[in-house]
Amino acid sequence: MTAGKESFQSRLCGLFLTPVDARIYACVRIAFAFVSLLNLMQIWPDRAIFFTDAGMVDQEVVRKFTVGAYVSVFDVCRDVSSVSTYLMFSGAAMLLLLFGVWSRLAAVIVYVWYVSYAMRAPLILVGWDEVLRCTAFLVMISPLPDCWCWKSRKARRQAAPEKEAPCYGLTLMRVQLAVIYLQAVLARLDNEYWMGGDFMSFFLLSHNARWPGLWVLNFGFLLKVVTYLVLLVELAIPFLLMVRRWRWYGFATGILLHAGISLMSYNLMLFFLAMLTLYLSFLQKEDMDWLERKLGRRR
Questions:
Q1: Which of 121, 157, 224, 253 is the most buried (most CB within 10 A)?
Q2: What is the spatial distance between Cα 98 and Cα 62, in angstroms, rounded to a whole number?
Q3: How far is 167 from 164, CA to CA, in rounded Å?
């Protein structure tokens, strides 16, 4: 009994504390910061509509219907100038995170940004907002090793970049990705359109499709097969990624799935990129070695 308990504890510690290549964390950090900047740029033109008192939703109404505490920087930033200043401040933090400068502070600022605008403008939230907010929290609490950072020549000479970091952050990101897919499948089990195989047909006839039209009616059986196939693929991806020798099948399957969604849907490219950020947590040391060799050859 004692030996079994010790074995379980050692496996649990290994799941969260085993050293991994620090470059994987750097890769996730850079990708997350880049996608966050794209998301901020998409929100920027409509900042007055979304976040000011003169916008489409009154802040007091949002506060009234918020479950739990209402915590948002937009409680202070209420006019166009202050909202614009806060968005630029958050964008600057994303750039710092991208280049690995004051990474921990920058990650905290970016997480506060995601929580603030989710609280202030819940009506604008879509799938990738939720994914990015969860990823922001995981990046904030994860190790942020001094790797692939922008440093002066003197600083690079004084300290070599960290080579390893504990794996708990990557483990949590992997679990997050699995939860997203499994929750998506479970949420559809009582949906008549998904269970009846008609979802893809109705979706491609809607305004959300990139090319809506009656042409969809000619492919009813094929779209029924695609509807069920999407459920099977979303169920399979986490298991493929978790098995090291099958993970590239998981990568390829996930990329094809989200590329297909982005191709057939209107304005869902950010969802594709937000999910790919979590996929990067499944990279291994040999992948990073290969990437550095390729980058070295190009230079």
A1: 121
A2: 32
A3: 9
51/78 Cα distance (integer angstroms): 7
Cα four-point dihedral sign 14, 17, 21, 23: positive
7 or 242, which is more confident: 242
Question: pTM for the full model?
Answer: 0.89
CB 174 within 8 A of CB 63: no
Q: Give Cα 210 distance to the centre of its chain.
A: 23
pLDDT (tens digit per residue) in 173-215? 999 999 999 999 999 998 898 999 889 988 888 888 888 888 8
Q: What is the pLDDT of residue 217?
A: 82
Domain residues of the chain, as ranges? 20-165, 167-294
- The number of residues making up the chain comes to 299
- Neighbouring C-beta atoms of residue 37, cutoff 10 Å: 17
Which residues does residue 21 pair with via DSSP β-bridges, in sequence order? 164
Beta bridge partners of 164: 21
Q: How far is CA 167 from the centre of its chain?
A: 18
Q: What's the rounded Cα separation, in Å, for the pair 97 and 14?
A: 28
The two tokens of residue 144 are: 């942020």
Measured CA to CA, the distance from residue 195 to residue 212 in angstroms comes to 22
Q: Which among 99-113, 140-154, 182-196 has the top mean pLDDT?
A: 99-113
Place of tokens 């090291």: 244
- Within the chain, residue ranges assigned H as helices are 2-17, 22-43, 47-51, 59-65, 80-99, 103-120, 127-141, 153-158, 168-188, 192-195, 199-205, 220-242, 247-264, 269-279, 285-298
